[in-house]
Amino acid sequence: MIARMWKGWTTVENAPKYEKLFVEKILPKVTSGVEGYISTNLLKRDSGSEVEFTTIFWFESLQAVKQFAGEHFEHAVVPEEARQVLSRFDESVSHYEKIL
For the domain that residue 37 is a member of, what is the CATH number? Predict the structure, then answer.
């Protein structure tokens, strides 16, 4: 199993907008029809001045990750509507093999 991890940051004011957008629109859109996609975790940390979101997408294999993200699978997949509410985000992602 492969974990695909990514981080994005937003203002405290935009955090609820991003969370709702991710859950209701982005997640269903980007994972629809991806064979080997298992699930997603969305984590949030409020530092007072900004809010950090960490997403962990779970896939059955690296091949499934490539189906999701394309040829340049190490680049972040950040839809335009997310870019409009995020202050900044990682341009690349990290992939990990689950051991336990």
Answer: 3.30.70.100
Domain housing 61: 2-97
Divide the 100 residues of the chain into consecutive groups of 10 and give the mean pLDDT of each group: 98 97 94 93 96 97 93 93 97 97
Contact 11/84 with Cβ under 8 angstroms?
Answer: no
Q: Which has the closest alpha carbon to 55: 16, 95, 17, 99? A: 95
> Could you tell me the pTM of the whole model?
0.92
DSSP 34: -
Number of domains in the chain: 1
Residue 2 forms beta bridges with which residues?
59, 97
